[in-house]
């Protein structure tokens, strides 16, 4: 069965002055799939996330989410449409508890008004109960319940990354963008993260686009991989095809560097 892509990038280009960080990249993420975006340092991977989430404006090309252009949308609108992300450098409220980190993200979907919150009207209390339950349930799914009262800063690094994913999930995304979620993790933590990605994909009906340098993770969970090198597409296809592509092997293992498209 041919499932329509949830995200499509068409001829995407981003220039920073004289530097072309992303050069005519076309790729798609299948609805319900896990796609990998890989490439050496500086290849343009995070820039692509910043373009998708509206942090950077596109120089040329198109980005379609569920068949509609999101080029003119602001970052908060794109999050509301259902695209949320984690960051290469973890962004948490370091001095808040693990639970409050998730609760603040859950509040983004709160249905009470400022007035109802200010005067503590009944709807505020009803909604607060629902949001707290949602935060508890997300922490449970992500295996963080027993650390709920810890200050985020005191979590081991690998669990801080997991907490960031929990916060992104709290916004009820249809598409989750993960920027190097396994960075700094040991092989056991990476293995657990892979299983978790599969679980949340199913339980939350998600599509996932993941940037990662851990090839075990990429090869283990992705059904499709797009490889970038110096902003250009080097390869695109199923994991086995990409892994055996001589251009990809060359880019990763060194030798003559390919410096232009
Ligand atoms: N805001 C910016 N202004 C100028 N240049 C930028 C900006 N953001 C990124 N770049 C440049 O664009 C290129 C691609 O950067 P990007 O962060 O997308 O790479 P990456 O593939 O995510 O690398 P890494 O694996 O190291 O995270 C780099 O040369 C980088 O210096
Ligand atoms: Mg990056």
What is the name of the CATH architecture of the largest domain? 3-Layer(aba) Sandwich
- General form: globular
| CATH superfamily heading of the largest domain | P-loop containing nucleotide triphosphate hydrolases
When the domains are counted, the total is 2
Q: What summary fits the major beta sheet?
A: 6 strands, mixed
Q: What top-tier CATH class of the largest domain fits best?
A: Alpha Beta
Question: What's the helical proportion of residues?
Answer: 25-40%
Strand content: 15-25%
Spatial gap, N to C terminus: 33 Å
Q: Ligands in the structure?
A: adenosine-5'-triphosphate, magnesium ion
Read across the widest sheet, the strand sequence of neighbours is: 6-7-8-3-9-10
Spell out the helices and strands N to C.
Answer: EEEHEEHEHHHHEHEHEEHH
Query: Rg to the nearest angstrom?
Result: 19 Å
Low-confidence stretches: none
- Using DSSP, what is the number of strands? 10
> Would you tell me which CATH topology of the largest domain applies?
Rossmann fold
Based on helices, strands and strand pairing, what is the structural class? alpha/beta
Short structural description:
Helices cover about 40% and strands about 25% of the residues. It contains ten helices and ten strands. It starts with a strand and ends in an 8-residue tail after the last helix.
Description:
The chain is an alpha/beta fold and 261 residues long. It has two domains: 152 residues, 3-Layer(aba) Sandwich (Rossmann fold), CATH 3.40.50.300; 81 residues, no CATH class. It contains ten helices and ten strands. The strands form two sheets. The protein has a six-stranded mixed sheet, sandwiched between helices. β4 and β5 form a beta hairpin. α3 runs parallel beside α6 and α7 runs parallel beside α8. The model has no long low-confidence stretch (mean pLDDT 91). Bound molecules: adenosine-5'-triphosphate and magnesium ion (MG). The site of magnesium ion has 3 residues, from α1.
């Amino acid at each position: 069965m041919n499932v329509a892509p949830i995200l499509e990038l068409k001829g995407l280009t981003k220039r920073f002055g004289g530097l072309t960080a992303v050069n005519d990249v076309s790729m798609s993420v299948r609805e319900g799939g896990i796609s990998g975006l890989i490439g050496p340092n500086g290849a343009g991977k995070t820039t692509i996330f910043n373009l998708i989430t509206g942090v950077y404006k596109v120089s040329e090309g198109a980005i379609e989410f569920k068949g509609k252009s999101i080029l003119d949308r602001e970052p908060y609108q794109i999050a509301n449409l259902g695209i949320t992300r984690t960051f290469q450098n973890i962004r948490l409220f370091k001095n808040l508890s693990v639970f409050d980190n998730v609760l603040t993200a859950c509040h983004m979907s709160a249905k009470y008004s400022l007035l109802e919150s200010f005067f503590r009207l009944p709807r505020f209390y009803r909604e607060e109960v629902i949001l707290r339950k949602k935060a508890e349930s997300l922490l449970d799914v992500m295996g963080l319940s027993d650390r709920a009262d810890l200050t985020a800063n005191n979590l081991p690094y690998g669990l801080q990354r997991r907490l960031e994913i929990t916060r992104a999930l709290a916004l009820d995304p249809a598409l989750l963008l993960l920027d190097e979620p396994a960075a700094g993790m040991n092989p056991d933590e990476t293995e657990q993260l892979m299983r978790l990605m599969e679980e949340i994909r199913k339980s939350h009906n998600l599509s996932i686009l993941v940037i990662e340098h851990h090839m075990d993770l990429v090869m283990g969970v992705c059904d499709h991989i797009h490889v970038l090198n110096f902003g250009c597409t080097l390869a695109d296809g199923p994991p086995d095809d990409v892994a055996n592509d001589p251009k990809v092997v060359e880019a990763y293992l060194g030798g003559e560097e390919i410096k232009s498209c």
